[in-house]
Amino acid sequence: MPSGKYARKWLWRWRSNPLRRHDDIVESWIVLAAWVAFAVGGAVAGLVTAHAADEVFAQQRAERQPVRAVLLETVPRTAPAIGMTTDRRPTTVRWTTPGGSTRTGRTLVDAGLRAGSEVTVWQDGHGRLAPAPPDPTEAAIESGFLGATAAAALGGLVFGGGAVARRLLDRRRIDAWDRQWALVGPRWGHQTS
């Protein structure tokens, strides 16, 4: 029955004990509050963040539209620059907005395309070039990652605050022991023989 022994050892601050100090009770409440804030607050922060990110991605998918654009310059096929992971290069394109006006802008396209080639670009509701919105799977993964990051950040803050509070309590206990020893210590200084 080692688990019962461990539980008794872990719960010693909650049981009545003549050696239990007020600081021990405060520390036990701090630890309990930190775990509750971590469990409940972390879950809430993670879910709220994931939901908010998912809404932003859904809004991006709703407002951005793909349009056909024409390359105005040739994009040479060259070796990727150091640190580049894709074979896409910036170039100038021309496209027509839903309102019928012609626009020109710079965007990334695959290397090796010639001037006059058609490519698909994305525009926002105002007809400006925008990055492609994440598809639902990518959005779900990124929302989950952002939610987990928010939960972890809150957990770090909670446990960091709890550690600071416990360190202050430890400092207070050590100071109390110093004051008590200053009263008792001189009486132990003589030797009996």
Mean pLDDT, as a whole number? 83
What global shape is seen?
elongated
What is the makeup of the main sheet? 5 strands, antiparallel
How many distinct helices? 3
Q: Helix- and strand-based class?
A: alpha+beta
Question: Rounded to an integer, what's the Rg over CA atoms?
Answer: 32 Å
Beginning-to-end CA distance, first to last residue = 48 Å
Number of strands: 5
* Strand content range: 15-25%
Please write the string of helix (H) and strand (E) elements.
HHEEEEEH
Given as residue ranges, the uncertain stretches (5+ residues, pLDDT < 50) are: none
Largest sheet strand order: 3-2-1-4-5
Protein name: Integral membrane protein
InterPro entries: MT1774/Rv1733c-like
Transmembrane segments: 144-165
Keywords: Membrane, Transmembrane, Transmembrane helix
What would your notes on this structure say?
There is one protein chain. With 193 residues, the chain is α+β, with helices and mostly antiparallel strands. Among the domains are: 55 residues, no CATH class; 67 residues, no CATH class. Helix content is 52%, strand content 17%. It contains 3 helices and 5 strands; from the N terminus they run ααβββββα. It has a 5-stranded antiparallel beta sheet. The longest helix has 49 residues. The radius of gyration is 32 Å and the shape is elongated. This is Integral membrane protein. It comes from Streptomyces hyaluromycini. Keywords: Membrane, Transmembrane, Transmembrane helix.
